[in-house]
Amino acid sequence: MRSRYLVALSVIGGAAAAYTLLARRWQLRWGATDKESEERLPGDDLIENADITATRAITIRASADQVWPWISQLGQGRGGFYSYDFLENLVGCNIHSANRTMPEWQDVEVGDEVRFGPEVGLAVASLDQGRSVVLRGGVPIGNTPAPYDSTWAFVLRDEPDKTTRLLVRERYAYTRPWARLIVEPTEVLSFVMSQKMLRGIKARAERHAATVASS
Predict the structure, then answer these.
(1) Domain count, the chain
(2) Which of 5, 63, 109, 175 has the greatest number of C-beta atoms within 10 Å?
(3) What are residue 23's phi and psi, to 5 degrees?
């Protein structure tokens, strides 16, 4: 019995170590090159010493001008997040991801709120129209303020082959010792939702670009 217990502990420990060394790094850098993961992006100056950073990226066969409208209308009550709506709606977010861009959702300015749900959102902290937008803040836990500060940056880069790189970066700075217990486990969920969002933006922008090219 003791030998089985030790074997089980070894398996669990090995799996945890493998996740820490391999899977976690892959999740935090999904789709991004080493250079993209390590370079400074808009919004990094807002949190200089982040406790955790995730940089994810995707190549889109469309111009930055064709991708930007999908980003500018992000948010609950607007274009949604192009991810797993049913998961977000299980916790009452009331998200409905759009399949077309809408003129009334294109205006975004510094100070605006991009909502995750009817009563929760992040503020637009910086904006380079058509190129980048950075959201900042945290989600409170009931009546308790968020135990961290965070930024969520969306950055577009033109590529020589006329495609666009979309980089999405999350940065967290813990303001309470126990924040790690909240943020780091939910990074797995963040990865799941983020890669779906990136693919959702890609599919929509490429479909629109193909329609424009054929018309």
Answers:
(1) 2
(2) 63
(3) -65, -45
